[in-house]
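In response to a reviewer's request, we include the raw inputs and outputs for one of the modeled complexes. The two entities were modeled together in a single run.
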Amino acid sequence: MNDHDRRTLRVALLAAAALVAWALFVTLVLPVFIRHAHQGTLPAVFSDLLPRRGHLPLEHYLARVQRTGAVVFALAALGALALVAATRPGVQQFLTRRFPAASAAPPTGRRGLLVTAVIVVVVGGHLFEIVTGTEHWPFSHYGMFSGLAPRDVSSRLSLYGVTDSGDVSLNVPAYFAPLDDQRIRGSIKKLRRRPDAEAAVEYVLRDAGARYERLRLSGVHHGPRILAIKLVEASWTQHHQIENRDQPDAIRVLHEVRLVEGGAPTR
Amino acid sequence: MSTVVEHWRAFWFAPARPTNLAIWRIVFYGTTLLFYGGEDVAAWATVPEVFWHPIRLFGVVHLVVLPESTLHLLSVVWAVALAASCVGLFTRASTIVAFVIGLYLIGLPHNFGKVHHGDALTVFMLGILACSRCGDGWSIDRLVALVRRPTLAQGPRSSGEYTWPLRLGCVLITLVFLGAGTSKLRQSGLRWITSDNMANMLVNHHYSHHPPVRWSLALAPHRWLTSGIAAMTVLLETAAPLALFSRWLRVVLIPSLFLMQVGIWLLMGILFRDFLVMYLVWVPWDRLGDWIVGRWAGRPTYAVLYDGSCGLCRRTMAVVRALDPLRRVAIHDVHGDWPEVARRYPHLSQETCMAEMHVVAPSGRITLGFDGYRALAWTLPAAWLVLPLLYLPGVRWVGRRVYARVAARRACSIAEHRAWAPAATPEATGEPAARR
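The model returned the following structure tokens for the whole complex.
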């Protein structure tokens, strides 16, 4: 066994020990900690680490920690592999060829600190989000479309306008500018969790309807005149040629607000 | 450990010319201005407070929706800062202003019910460029510096300062894809690939979005095809960071990811507008430039004959040199290098060359003064923008007079200069008397 092999073995053993320690920590120590934090037997600073503790069961947090722990383990294992590989002469030669260290010209002094801080914050922030699966705009783990898409579109909140000739879908961004259908639905979803949900949602719909009419009259969009605005829960059975795109199979009206001319809410 | 640090430094700070960073600055700020310049951000002030659900950044810093007039003013200042950053005018200040206002204005809509991530990279890039030295090349600041100190005409030296911002942009792009790939595997596992997930996604998006074509409806019934697309998506996304280390993988992965995002737009109606521009951060513009210059090499060039004893002329020539990336202009100093000029152009006299700038076209046609500048504008790409203006009626008349006036004042200063600087006299430079 030469020097390189000995160094590789040493790094591999250290990495393996760190991975095992992490696995034990996640499976044995963390669940106990979370159980106590959930029960509120730990100081408040630890219990506060579990957002909406009163509404969500313990299993939710345990599952989340297990998932995050697994991701950290997988990424750490990849990192360990890379570290072990980096001890091999062939890999070192490759790296030296790709990134000739001698020619590097890093900034020094305060400037060097600033640049290093920018790199560490931007890269570290993203890695943190990826590992923990959290969102702190502009950082993100980019989890959109990561869930499994159901066969049928079910229970989607939608806005409809009531016109003289029937109901029309209001899924057009220009209708509520600068808001759009998605933002209004997102706001409504959040507001429906509030104690005064009924009044808040009605207020939102009244504003959306007034905004629609105001933009229509000022020529920003050319939608039909609406007399009322409806919040509905719509469901579609998937048709491969989407013949039923504009006709949901089931519609449940959650709210309906009749529009009064000049009755736009103010900020 | 020291080896790891060395490789870290080599990765981020390998010396490079300022060209790539400068071109990226122009492209990035130009497109950002194009995408966001026309947005009516002031309208957010009219949205009722009930819609306000602040994201963490706005909540922690207690940022609020500013009044309509202030938002309008901010958007104007931001547009000016973006434009100034694009052309490299007061670059340090304008990029910082563009970042600070951009962070607020781009972040503002995310506080109203829905957080999108399509613009996050734009915010990061605004911040990265604000901390970089992106104004060192291809900028008005550079031209101003050249006018002040013509000795800078050699251009900035290669430095790691021109590498790290672009590398960070590339790393960011790969992290976005790594995040997207690992999120899919973490949340859904291999079922994201093996189930009918992709087929459902392709069809369901027609119920909520407006894809430009209906191809996804034709693809969806073919389960093996949709699973193949899903597998390829996860593979490309999780493998994206490898593009940072291997040139061959970069050539395969980055265009594939670009096409994947174009495919998402075509099949699902989701357009990653800002992101698609970000791919240009990978382009080695300097090598592309070298290749183009190589293609031009050997073609006939314009010759400019100027008075090197005149400070104004030296500064002007430094600017011309900076505006000539294709190396199509050969500049000759008729004061300091007259024997060589006389050998090349024996029919010209030093006296006339000293009195007015001469531009010799590849055809041999000679133009003087303002007309010379107009001839040069045809061969300097940066001057093509103003070329039509130079041919407007009356511009030539005004231009000739302005040139004559400036040349007359220049002649006075030369006379003064020669009065106290004997080294600049023709005798001292050893020029042949017959040529004078």
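As requested, we also summarize the result in words. The mean pLDDT of chain A is 84. Chain A has two domains: 3-104, 153-266.
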